[in-house]
Request: fold
Amino acid sequence: MREKFLSFSKPSISEKEIEANEPIVKRASPFIIAIACLIVLLIGSFDRDLWTPDEPRVAAIALEMSKTGQYLIPHLAGTPFVEKPPLYFAVAAVFIKTIGQYTSDINAIRLTTVLFGIGTLVMTFLMAIRLYSGNRNLCVLSVAVLVTMVGFVVNFHWIRVDAALCFFVIAAVWSIGQAYIAHKIWYCIPAGLFSAGAFLSKGPIGPVLIVIPWFTLFVQWFMSLKGNPAVNKVKIVGSHVAGLLVFLLLAGSWVLYLKTSGGTDLWNHWFWDNQVGRLSGTATELGHIRRGQPFYYLLQMAGDTSPWFPLIIVWLGVIVTDLFKRRSISQSDIFLLSWGMGTLLLLSLSATKRGIYMAPLLPAFAMMCIPALNIVIQNKCIRRYAYFWGGLCVCLLAFFTFVPFAASHLPQSIPVPALAFLRNFGVRNFAAGAACLASLYILFSFGRQQQVVVGMIFMTVFLNIGMFLVPVKAIDFAKSMRADTLKFTSPIPPEQRAYIAGYGFSETMLGCFYFYAGWTVPQVTDRAHANRILAQNDPQYTSIIIAKKNSHRTKVIESINQLAERPYQVLTAQPLGDKRMVFWIKGIDSFFP
Reply:
């Protein structure tokens, strides 16, 4: 059995090309590049609050899970929340219970995302080694390319279940590669384990994202077995069956538990509304329905893979040219092409489209850049693009450094807390200035051809450092709803809260009240019930908190007037962030017991 993935045609990178590209990494130690990757992943992860719309909801679910010990069915403010399976929440809950007492609950949850990010990078490195002749130095670059992609930076700095999905998808693909490329067929078992993890992270979409790379590798492996008398069919079949059983046991156990313990309504909400409904587009109330946008993910791909999108285009151009000229194409390139383009087509067929669904595909795009490296250092257009990108990094970092001196010219629409932060010159601006000078030095070093790739990597690392130190921190001041939530809830005595209902709360609002104030606000869902409370005709509630996603008080009052059928008084009103307002109201004659 051949150990390298070179079964049918020439390798994607020849030995001579590998030797020619060695200086690309040797000029900057792989260890230094790895440290730079870790910095990108860590910076900005632990020094900010929860961001809307997703983080308050996910954090509240994890916190509630840590308190209740109910790890199999997620709950949001006391109500079952099964849009997503429980794996990410459960891992985050464990971190809250184990290290939350030594740090904050938010940082404990963010550590979950960071660790899944590290796991994704490690698995991408191992998969690149399997595909590209085991050249570790070049494969380090694929990890560096991945960690500096816009999509990776965004997705692994947010508290979202997609971080777990990314890890389990690439881990499953690597296991499949071990089984089919290295002919270690027993790796079908961990492939089944990781596939179950993908399912338990985000539902059926997890295994679906694994099917296309699995099928491609399976076909290539199956063709390589033809005419080989040494094939052990019992071992092959047994390993596949074992992997499938592991998947069915883990994923099926949770599905069975949900169906039997959660009840019919909960099952229908998870399966028919969230899974079938999102795919077909019938679940319009869940959002993100984008019909008639067949190129949505192509545009998303360009943004998420920046600044490395031109390298992917170069790689695709070479593949298409070879196809038209009927040249042989390596198995590695066929695999990556099938994985990338096949998954994009699959996602595009769904009525529900959202940028984060692209995240598990980013490792494939990062590995596509490896064959393009030899072209990059010789292509004048790509070198000009590298100069452009380097110049842009320097300009942006210079702006982050001196923004306090230009704060008076910034748009007045910027929220006051963010504007106040940007006006103060501090250590963060000095650090951004240092990153600017380092990027400028790298830019002037581009005269040596083999510095281009590593130079772009480090300049992008410096840009991310500056981004998280200055503008992202300013955004944090604007998006955090901790202070506003506590300002609204603190004056309300705990003994009165049992008699207050909520109306019009979003998942974000439920999460903020639970996470910041420890208050599970019961919800009323229809106008008639709300008016019974205002009329003192409800046996349990005497007042209502109304939440509206609108920062204009007059418009919110108009909306409340349309709801209320009797006079009321506003007890408390408070904006939450820059887009929401909450009003605590009661009928004029109502009182608290």
Observations:
- The radius of gyration is 27 Å.
- Confidence is low (pLDDT under 50) at residues 1-25.
